[in-house]
């Protein structure tokens, strides 16, 4: 295997990415910002490192997105393809480490909380147009996110900032809690403790853009973005290609690559043909090609697998009987699905989920166990729970691979005497029915919007998020209290205890039935070096270089 | 007649716009929820809904849309928040280029091979050509595309497997060939039958008896007589291609209005979907109008 670069992350991580459906919702950044105060020393955050030989400058990395991202307006980023490009073009106060497991400083030279007020000192950085990044630009970017005219789907990221409610309602002109002290300093006053705030600041939605350039771009903003990331958007052909060139004045040094070209290739067969023809340097490895490459000694080192920060689950509608009102019925479903068979069907590209939290996001150690497939036990529980002989509706998306896995579960449950009617629906119908609770049982998944357990558990389990993340419509005041307490806690271990309690409660009550954690798999060309695999499947190309002649 | 048809285009377009708009509202799913994301609060969804103008009464939305159309405004994409007109303009170029290249090639191949098949009926050439054309019609477009990619990009390494190149780019060859194969296959069968029918006509015997060569009879009389039905087939095929061949666009990662419309449907990007349906409808109306003009011309020529 090509050794991974390792200057700034211990032991050169081998987290990996690969195939992913439209993981709407990934945004991303930073790891369990437990107590979160001082920034990692990390000047080397994006310092490229040699894999084999010395890194060289030059060349274009040819990679892909599945769909045209449409816009790189930070306030509008909510889809996976947008995040893929944004991770390389936008820059916020913080950014995700290249392997996707840690927070690194971005434009913030220092950012320290004192009570509920953060004082942020900007480093001497410039936008891609050469103008300096100022505190005024940061405030403009944050104000813009919460402006009702922007209609950002991620405005809630700044809900803990003082004055957010007024700004979001249009009753105030910007966030009262964000104040410019001087050109390089600003303060951010929170309305209460927010232990996840540092992780939120690393979200691409809070990337800093040039006020002057944004206002000048008008309606074109989104296609024309002036930020301070390692690469700068240089061309965008709708539905075809997006090209970004290396920013000569990137604060952490110019990337090795001259440019990155994302081709819009939605079909996985086409991606593989392009990879094999040498016109694509990186591709997700679909199941139909996996064995051929993984078993080929010449290619095996370039096939990468990584546990993802992602959980697939069944959401149980807790408002509907009998599943929602009967714990034995939910346990019957939990014990009645053969996760190992599903994993085998996915060629090992997943691991069993025993907890809602994935291992990469601090799954509690005592979560080991979960439901092991046992159809006799499931049958007994189904009879006790009153679902034996009754038909349950399982809603899923209509993606062929997902339908195949759902059919396997359907067959498992039938063996346990549980009749499940599968209803695959398109994405729009799925989202609407999930939000309205129009299902008995639904396939669901979670990836974090920012890399903190709060972003994983609160949307799923907080009663305030019923219909907007809490698709199970789970309502438990004790869990609400633990989640709120964890967000207020400045003490890392105390947060850990709260989240363990929440995770254990979810495992006991089963509003969600954990199924799998994805393992991402992809392959890259032999000449690609310094490529780190992001647990969020959001590769950072600022450390990548192309080996001549490889 | 032609002028009246051209004058009707705006009226038909307005009708199409209203029908499409109402049709959009019968689609299941909430565009605002989809645009806001699964974890957005009801408050956020409401903000997005208002920003997209979806909170107004239906009649007002239809009225505003038609008013916008009059001013050349197709609205703002809910997904990209960019003007739909600009996005459609960007994807329409590749669609028009591909459609015209395919149709010109299909006509050249279809008419030539179909005529040869008719003239050489009974020999081995004709059954072979007809078998080939039948096969081309049976194969799904995506299968043809994948086979061509494997052969010309992977095994022979001659052509790029995908890309959005223009008329003079090698990236257009494989998607064009993929579309030409079934289009030409159908024309071969059609032209063969039309030519064979006319070969038995009295005017052909008369022309041959007057001493004209077989070639000049076929080109000057038979094909001219067969022109009208050929125009009908070609215009129908061209209209289909202008509607976008989404599968070909997907297989060759080529931008085009078919894929744009499909993506808009999936994401319930109503302005983008409406805009693309409207533009496709206009193109079909335009092709039909041109076909009518061509019929008149062909009739006059064959009569003359």
Can you walk me through this structure?
Chain B: It is found in: Cell membrane. The complex is a heterodimer of chains A (550) and B (304). Chain A is 27% helix and 20% strand. Chain A is built from 15 helices and 20 strands. Chain A has helices at residues 80-89, 135-146, 164-168, 197-201, 211-217, 268-276, 287-294, 327-336, 339-345, 375-385, 400-415, 427-436, 453-461, 477-488, 492-509, and strands spanning 60-65, 94-96, 103-105, 108-114, 117-122, 178-182, 185-189, 231-237, 241-246, 259-264, 282-284, 303-307, 311-316, 350-352, 391-397, 419-425, 441-446, 512-524, 528-529, 545-546. In chain A, β15, α11 (400-415) and β16 form a beta-alpha-beta unit. The two termini of chain A are 14 Å apart. Chain B has 304 residues and is mainly alpha-helical. Chain B has 2 domains: 2-70; 85-303, MetI-like (MetI-like fold, Orthogonal Bundle), CATH 1.10.3720.10. In chain B, 76% of the residues lie in helices and 0% in strands. Chain B has helices at 2-26, 31-36, 42-51, 58-70, 84-119, 125-138, 141-155, 173-199, 202-209, 214-225, 227-242, 246-251, 257-266, 270-303. At the A-B interface, α6 and α12 of A face α2, α3, α5, α7 and α13 of B.
Please supply descriptive tags for the structure shown above.
heterodimer; A: about 550 residues; alpha+beta; eight-stranded mixed β-sheet; four-stranded mixed β-sheet; 15 helices; disordered N terminus; B: about 300 residues; mainly alpha; MetI-like fold; 2 domains; about 75% helix; globular
Summarize the structure.
Chain B: This is Oligopeptide transport system permease protein OppB. Chain A is an alpha+beta fold.
Q: How do the strands and helices of this protein lay out in sequence?
A:
The complex is a heterodimer of chains A (550) and B (304).
Chain A: E1 60-65, H1 80-89, E2 94-96, E3 103-105, E4 108-114, E5 117-122, H2 135-146, H3 164-168, E6 178-182, E7 185-189, H4 197-201, H5 211-217, E8 231-237, E9 241-246, E10 259-264, H6 268-276, E11 282-284, H7 287-294, E12 303-307, E13 311-316, H8 327-336, H9 339-345, E14 350-352, H10 375-385, E15 391-397, H11 400-415, E16 419-425, H12 427-436, E17 441-446, H13 453-461, H14 477-488, H15 492-509, E18 512-524, E19 528-529, E20 545-546
Parallel strand pairs in A: 1-10, 15-16, 15-17
Antiparallel strand pairs in A: 2-3, 4-5, 5-7, 6-7, 8-9, 9-10, 11-18, 12-18, 13-17, 13-18, 14-18, 19-20
Helix pairs in contact in A: 8-10, 13-14, 13-15, 14-15
Chain B: H1 2-26, H2 31-36, H3 42-51, H4 58-70, H5 84-119, H6 125-138, H7 141-155, H8 173-199, H9 202-209, H10 214-225, H11 227-242, H12 246-251, H13 257-266, H14 270-303
Keywords (chain B): Cell membrane, Membrane, Transmembrane, Transmembrane helix, Transport
Organism (chain B): uncultured Mycobacteriales bacterium
Family (chain B): Belongs to the binding-protein-dependent transport system permease family.
């Amino acid at each position: 295997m090509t050794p991974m670069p390792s200057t700034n992350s211990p032991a050169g991580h081998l987290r990996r990415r690969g195939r992913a459906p439209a993981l709407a919702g990934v945004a991303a950044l930073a790891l369990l910002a437990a107590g979160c105060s001082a920034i990692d020393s990390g000047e080397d955050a994006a310092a490229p490192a040699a894999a084999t030989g010395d890194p060289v400058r030059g060349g274009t990395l040819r990679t892909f997105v599945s769909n045209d991202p449409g816009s790189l307006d930070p306030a509008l980023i909510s889809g996976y393809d947008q995040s893929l490009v944004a991770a390389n073009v936008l820059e916020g106060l913080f950014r995700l480490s290249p392997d996707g497991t840690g927070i690194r400083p971005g434009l913030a030279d220092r950012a320290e909380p004192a009570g509920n007020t953060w004082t942020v000192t900007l480093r001497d950085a410039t936008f891609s147009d050469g103008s300096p990044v100022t505190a005024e630009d940061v405030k403009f970017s944050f104000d813009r996110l919460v402006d009702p005219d922007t209609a950002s789907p991620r405005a809630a990221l700044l809900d803990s900032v003082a004055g957010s409610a007024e700004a979001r309602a249009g009753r105030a002109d910007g966030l009262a809690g964000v104040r410019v002290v001087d050109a390089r300093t600003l303060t951010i006053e929170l309305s209460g403790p927010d232990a996840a705030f540092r992780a939120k600041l690393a979200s691409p939605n809070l990337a800093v853009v040039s006020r002057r350039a944004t206002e000048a771009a008008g309606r074109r903003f989104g296609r024309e973005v002036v930020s301070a990331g390692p690469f700068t958007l240089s061309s965008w052909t709708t539905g075809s290609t997006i090209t970004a060139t290396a920013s000569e004045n990137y604060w952490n040094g110019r990337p090795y690559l001259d440019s990155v070209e994302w081709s819009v290739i939605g079909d996985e067969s086409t991606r593989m043909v392009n990879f094999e023809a040498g016109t694509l340097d990186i591709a997700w490895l679909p199941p139909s090609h996996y064995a051929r490459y993984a078993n080929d000694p010449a290619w095996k080192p370039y096939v990468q697998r990584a546990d993802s920060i992602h959980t697939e689950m069944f959401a149980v509608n807790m408002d509907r009987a009998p599943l929602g009102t009967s714990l034995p019925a939910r346990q019957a479903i939990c014990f009645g699905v053969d996760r190992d068979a599903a994993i085998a069907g996915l060629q090992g590209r997943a691991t069993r989920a025993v907890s809602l939290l994935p291992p990469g996001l601090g799954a509690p150690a005592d979560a080991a166990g979960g439901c092991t497939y046992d159809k006799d036990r499931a049958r007994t529980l189904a009879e006790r729970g009153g679902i034996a002989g009754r038909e349950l509706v399982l809603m899923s998306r209509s993606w062929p691979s997902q339908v195949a896995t759902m059919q396997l579960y359907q067959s498992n449950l039938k063996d346990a005497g549980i009749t499940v009617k599968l209803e695959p629906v398109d994405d729009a119908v799925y989202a609407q029915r999930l939000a309205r609770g129009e299902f008995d049982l639904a396939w669901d998944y979670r990836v974090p919007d920012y890399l903190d357990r709060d972003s994983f558990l609160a949307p799923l389990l907080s009663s305030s998020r019923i219909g907007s993340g809490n698709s199970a419509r789970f309502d438990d005041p004790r869990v609400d209290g633990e989640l709120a307490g964890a967000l207020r806690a400045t003490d890392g271990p105390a947060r850990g205890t709260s989240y363990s309690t929440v995770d254990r409660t979810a495992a006991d009550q089963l509003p969600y039935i954990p199924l799998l954690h994805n393992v991402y798999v992809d392959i890259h060309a032999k000449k690609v070096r310094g490529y780190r695999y992001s647990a969020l499947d959001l590769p950072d190309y600022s450390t990548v270089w192309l080996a001549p002649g490889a | 007649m032609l002028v009246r048809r051209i004058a009707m285009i705006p009226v038909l377009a307005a009708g199409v716009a209203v029908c499409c708009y109402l049709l959009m509202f019968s689609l299941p799913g909430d565009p605002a929820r989809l645009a806001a994301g699964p974890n957005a609060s009801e408050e956020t969804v409401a903000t997005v809904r208002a920003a997209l103008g979806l909170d107004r009464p239906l009649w007002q939305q239809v009225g505003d849309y038609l008013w916008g159309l009059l001013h050349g405004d197709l609205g703002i994409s809910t997904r990209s928040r960019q003007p739909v007109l600009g996005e459609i303009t960007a994807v329409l170029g590749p669609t028009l280029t591909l459609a015209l290249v395919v149709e010109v090639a299909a006509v050249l191949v279809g008419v030539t091979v179909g005529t040869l098949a008719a003239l050489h009926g009974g020999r081995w050439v004709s059954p072979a050509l007809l078998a080939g054309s039948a096969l081309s019609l049976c194969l799904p477009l995506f299968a043809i595309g994948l086979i061509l990619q494997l052969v010309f990009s992977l095994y022979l390494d001659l052509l790029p497997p995908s890309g959005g190149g223009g008329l003079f780019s090698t990236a257009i060859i494989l998607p064009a060939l993929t579309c030409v194969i079934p289009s030409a296959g159908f024309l071969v069968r059609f032209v063969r039958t039309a030519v064979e029918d006319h070969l038995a006509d009295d005017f052909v015997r008369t022309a041959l008896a007057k001493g004209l060569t077989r070639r000049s009879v076929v080109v000057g009389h038979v094909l001219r007589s067969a022109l009208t039905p050929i125009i009908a087939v070609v215009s129908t095929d061209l209209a289909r291609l202008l509607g976008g061949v989404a599968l070909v666009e997907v297989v060759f990662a080529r931008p085009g209005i078919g894929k744009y419309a499909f993506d808009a449907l999936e994401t319930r990007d109503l302005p983008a979907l409406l805009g693309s349906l409207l533009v496709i409808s206009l193109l079909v109306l335009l092709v039909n109008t041109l076909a009518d003009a061509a019929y008149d011309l062909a009739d006059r020529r064959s009569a003359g």
